[in-house]
Design brief:
Strand content: 5-15%
CATH topology of the largest domain: Rossmann fold
CATH class of the largest domain: Alpha Beta
CATH architecture of the largest domain: 3-Layer(aba) Sandwich
Low-confidence stretches: 269-287
Number of strands: 5
CATH superfamily of the largest domain: P-loop containing nucleotide triphosphate hydrolases
Number of domains: 2
Order of helices and strands: HEHEEHEHHHHEHHHHHHHHH
Helix content: 40-55%
Number of helices: 16
Strand order of the largest sheet: 2-3-1-4-5
Mean pLDDT: 86
Radius of gyration: 19 Å
Largest sheet: 5 strands, parallel
């Protein structure tokens, strides 16, 4: 009997002893890294009154879970984890984001926070060549077409096929956070009464101010300013099944490699808030 199976049995036994008839609200945010996970988690936690739990592996979650909690992690859709979620009555929320924007945000974040090396048990396989790269460089393209990048992109792709999961898109939340969060909260049987305060609290400036610069640009379609089309096409071809199944495409751009490198240098030094943040709306963090 595997360790995972034993832990799942223990959790089921504890839940049975505590009584399963009581009201429980548990939400799990399970998506690829840098897809808006922390933003969605924090807003939902405030609005729904949920205790926050964020771990790198579900083995790290408390053995006895709070009745009302929201769990965030990046993990494969595999049987032991599925059983953990099912037996503990979690509602799964999966967030899609354009794969090229996700890879860019990963590059920016992983350079600043070593915790990123713990994603997927180390299967993201970051290398010094990648972490020191510009998005328009051969080193970035090498990583973006690698097995490590496939692992990163696979999480949302796998959970997007779960019929019971609540599926949302990062781009929709950036474009209209009030409507999209209201819809998600309603789907989770909650009330959006204090949504405005939560969106204000967790706007882009909150994430940009963190020591690890958890927020960056907060702008869908950023890849069009940083990745030349020929490179974008190679990445698309390498991960076509992910792009296509999540309904993301790449339009041809006229961006030159020199322009892309200049844009990267400027953004690294002087990150600009999104339009939503400048207008006082609740902008997303870059995830």
């Amino acid at each position: 009997m595997t360790r995972a199976t034993l832990r799942n049995l223990a959790r089921r036994s504890l839940a049975a002893l505590q009584g399963r008839a009581r009201a429980v609200r548990r939400v799990a945010i399970v998506s690829s890294p840098r897809s808006g996970n922390s933003w969605v988690r924090c807003v939902l936690a405030d609005v729904l009154g949920l205790e926050q739990i964020f771990v790198h592996n579900y083995f790290e979650a408390p053995l006895i879970l709070p009745d009302n909690c929201i769990l965030q992690l990046h993990w494969y859709r595999e049987p032991n984890f599925q059983e953990f979620l099912r037996s503990n009555r979690f509602r799964v929320v999966v967030i899609a984001r354009h794969p090229l924007d996700m890879l860019l945000s990963t590059l920016h974040f992983a350079r600043l926070d070593k915790e990123a090396n713990l994603w997927l048990g180390g299967n993201a396989e970051f290398t010094p060549r990648f972490l020191g790269a510009a998005p328009a460089s051969p080193e970035f393209l090498e990583y973006a077409t690698s097995w490590g990048a496939e692992n990163l992109l696979s999480i949302t792709h796998q959970w997007w096929h779960d019929q019971q999961a609540v599926k949302v898109r990062y781009e929709d939340f950036v474009r209209d956070p009030v409507s999209r969060f209201t819809e998600l909260i309603s789907n989770l049987d909650g009330s959006p009464a204090n949504l405005s305060a939560a969106l204000q609290k967790y706007g882009l400036a909150n994430w940009q101010a963190k020591r690890n610069k958890h927020g960056w640009q907060g702008r869908p379609g950023l890849w069009q300013d940083l990745i030349p089309f020929d490179d974008a096409l190679q990445i698309y071809e390498r991960h076509r099944v992910v792009f296509d199944s999540l309904a993301y495409s790449i339009g041809r751009t006229s961006l030159t490699r020199e322009e892309a490198l200049r844009n990267w240098q400027q953004m690294k030094v002087d990150p600009k808030p999104s339009t939503a943040a400048q207008s006082g709306k609740a902008a997303s963090p870059v995830k």
